[in-house]
Amino acid sequence: RLFFFVCRISFIFLLLCFGLLFISFCIILFFFFFFFFKQKTAYEMLRSLVGSEMCIRDRIYTLDRQTYRMITTRASKKKREMYEGFLTTVPFLKEANLSKNELLQLADSLKSVTFEDGQTLIEYGEVGEAFYIIVEGTVDVYGRDDNDKVVKVCDFTVGENVGELEFLRNHRCVADVKARGHVRTAKMNRLHFEMVMGPVMDVLARTAGESNVYSYYRHQLEKMEKGHTPEPGNRASDDEAEEKKE
């Protein structure tokens, strides 16, 4: 009897062990399939939204070549539509008599940048890194007189440009350019300027040499030829700019 009793207890114990192992295996299997299904569902949802072979691995997103080309083409087309009509009305570009392909190339290299009242587009004494065509609003130009005091030189509005002189002559900025109210611009960096603005370089240089608006600039060139170099530090403050407006 004792032997049968021990056998029964051992059998029951083995059944409990096998039961626990089976339950553990089922739980592991459940979580495995749940995780796999969740990952697959997320992938399929993203693929259906994007419409491409996009993969997600460790939070790294990849695009296939066709989708990348489609996105960049759409962005380029949108930018061209935004600027093409406007560029045909810009005086210095009209004078340069650019072809449609040259205008499209120019539009592709522009970036829309907005400024609020008092914000600075260009700072006196800094190395010029950007050229702006004004799309909306007006900017004020503040230079320095012979006593190095801040003076308002002129203003520019829609269709006019600022920042090109530093590229043409390769020198530091000779004035502050500040937004008067809300201003929207089409911005181009130095590299793109040198690549796509070749056909209008002569027009810009001639305008700088002849227009009365650029008399201050020509005076600054004469000073630089005598050894005076614009240095950052004496910039037009917002208060000074406000006084000059008044």
Structural class: alpha+beta
How many helices in DSSP terms?
9
What is the overall pLDDT average?
76
**Could you spell the SSE succession in H and E letters?**
HEEHHHEEEEEHEHHHH
State the low-pLDDT regions, or none. Answer: 49-58, 238-246
Strand-residue fraction? 15-25%
Q: Please state the overall shape, judged from the principal axes of the Cα atoms.
A: elongated
End-to-end CA span = 115 Å
Largest sheet: 6 strands, antiparallel
Give the fraction of residues assigned to helices: 40-55%
- Rg, rounded, reads 34 Å
Number of strands: 8
Give an account of the 3D structure.
This protein has 246 residues and is an alpha+beta fold. Helix content is 52%, strand content 21%. A hairpin with a 5-residue loop joins strand 5 and strand 6 (150-156). Helix 2 (65-87) packs across helix 4. The longest helix has 49 residues, at 2-50. The radius of gyration is 34 Å and the shape is elongated. The model is unreliable at 49-58 and 238-246 (pLDDT under 50).
